[in-house]
Every structure is written in structure tokens, then in C-alpha cells.
Amino acid sequence: MQLLCQEPLGVGGFLELASFASIMANKGPSYGMSREVQSKIEKKYDEELEARLVEWIIVQCGPDVGRPDRGRLGFQVWLKNGVILSKLVNSLYPEGSKPVKVPENPPSMVFKQMEQVAQFLKAAEDYGVTKTDMFQTVDLFEGKDLAAVQRTLMALGSLAVTKNDGHYRGDPNWFMKKAQEHKREFTESQLQEGKHVIGLQMGSNRGASQSGMTGYGRPRQIIS
């Protein structure tokens, strides 16, 4: 394939082309086991969950984010450049403390789009989403695992409902509240008293004696 350029690419254009070439070089048809694995991953994608997540994002961010075409591909294209994801996580914070900078114009260069998605992931982790619930940039950008993208958004929504700090918008029943820790506070005197308590699992030496015991290494005398 021959690439014809009417004008010099410049640094930005060169980086975009290089990134695009790198992605395409590592992408190809799936055969055998890899195709089987990919098929199983795709079956995990939940279209009913997609509808719920789309409704939440629109309510949370406002109608300006638009609405995607139904289905896996539409969902991917809608979120792919990272802008809507960034607006989503920003909406969970008060004014003046938004964690992600959102560009006025959606990024068109590949590496800029991937960078925007990476910023969302960092902000989601800082918000409290665990690493095990986090998707990888390529899961969304190349459509490798959109079920993982759904999992991350569900975890984010669950945290927002659980925090109940006034920034969540939408039906609270869309997400399950996460279990919260119930920490008990102890006074200094209670902590000191606890040091002198012997737990039952440690046993007791009350009533114990060395009566009838033989010295180490000596045979036990048996009298009939």
C-alpha cells in the first residue's frame, strides 16, 4: 500500500500515523484458539446492561453527549475517543475539582484519543474502582473486550450510588450499593485492657501442674 501526502505530516501527524501503523500491524484475523477465546469474550457483552449504562451516562452528563446506535459497535464508537467517559467521571466531582481535562474539540488523532481514555481510567481508579474491575485501553479502542468496559462503568456507578454525596444522577436502583466497612472506635483505656485478655483460642493454664511428668529423655515407669 502506498501513502500519498500532499503536505508534510509534521510531528503530530507523524505520531498519529506511527501509532495507527503500530495498531494495524498487531491486528489481524483471529484463527483457532484465539478466535474461540474472542467469541467467548464477546458473548459476555450484555445488551440489556448497555441500555442501562447509556441511560445513566445521558442523565449524568446531559443530553449533549448524544445517544449511540444500539449494539456493541455503536457503544464502542460512542465512547472510543474518551471524551464522554471523561465527562462522566468529572460529573461525579464538585465544580473546581474535576480530575480530567476535557478538550473543547474531540481529539481526532489516535494517540490523543487513547490518552484521553487513559486519563479516564486513572480518574476512575482514584475514585475507588478497583484494578480488577478496570478495563484496558485496547479493550475499548480496538473492541477487544467491551464486556470489561461495561464492568468498569458498573463499578463506577455502584461507587457513586454508595457514596451518596449528591453528585450521582439517575435512578439509584440502576446500580447495587457496594458493601461498606463498619469501623469500631476504641478508647485508649479499652485498648490497654484488651492487652491483658487471653483469648479462648489460646487455652488456659489454670489448674495445670507438672505432677506426674518425667524429665526429658528419661523413660516412663509403668507399674502394673
How does the SSE layout of this entry go?
Blueprint: H1 10-25, H2 32-43, H3 47-61, H4 72-79, H5 83-90, H6 110-127, H7 137-141, H8 146-163, H9 188-194
Description:
By secondary structure, this protein is mainly α. It has a domain at 35-174: Calponin-like domain (Actin-binding Protein, T-fimbrin, domain 1), CATH 1.10.418.10. The chain has nine helices and no strands. Helix 5 (83-90) runs parallel beside helix 6 (110-127). The longest helix is centred in the middle third of the chain and has 18 residues, at 110-127. The protein starts with 9 loop residues before the first helix and ends in a 30-residue tail after the last helix.
CATH topology of one domain: Actin-binding Protein, T-fimbrin, domain 1
Question: Could you name the ranges where pLDDT drops below 50 across 5 or more consecutive residues?
Answer: 1-9, 11-26
* Count, helices: 9
Shape: globular
Which structural class fits the helix and strand makeup? mainly alpha
The CATH architecture of one domain can be named as: Orthogonal Bundle
Share of helix among residues? 40-55%
* Average pLDDT reading: 79
Number of strands: 0
Largest sheet: none
What is the strand content? under 5%
CATH C-level name of one domain: Mainly Alpha
Order of helix and strand elements from N to C terminus: HHHHHHHHH
Organism: Fukomys damarensis (Damaraland mole rat)
Protein name: Transgelin
Pfam families: Calponin, CH
Subcellular location: Cytoplasm
